[in-house]
Amino acid sequence: MTIKIQTPNGQVSLTQDVISTVVGTAVTDNYGVVGMVSKNFFRDNLIEILGQENYSKGVVITQHGDDVLVDVYILVSYGTKISVICQNIQQAVKYSVEQLLGFEVSYVNVHVQGVKID
Q1: What is the pLDDT of residue 38?
Q2: Exposed, middle or buried, 80 (CB in 10 Å: 0-12/13-18/19+)?
Q3: What is the DSSP code (8-state) at residue 50?
Q4: Which of 10, 12, 29, 71 has the fewest C-beta atoms lying within 10 Å of its C-beta?
Q5: What's the whole-model pTM score?
Q6: What are the extents of the domains in the chain?
Q7: Architecture of domain 15-116
């Protein structure tokens, strides 16, 4: 999936990997997030915390007309307030994508796939 942005000088295309790296970095910098996990967590029945090189497995980008939707799949730490973590992730992802990549995100959906007990 590529996102195409029209500028006065031409068209810019951003690939899934570029967007996933920016989104993944914004997500994992939040307190309470253990890491990102695969979007196929339940099908694979395996908890694998994703590293920076494969954030694209835990991020789904979709574009419907002018709306860009971002879905992130995370694992949170036990004892943290999940609703606050999700709100912080939504704000961080929206800000990072808009500032670094130059397009507006309509929705950021956070899917908590599990809780890790330390």
Answers
A1: 79
A2: middle
A3: B
A4: 10
A5: 0.85
A6: 15-116
A7: 2-Layer Sandwich (3.30)
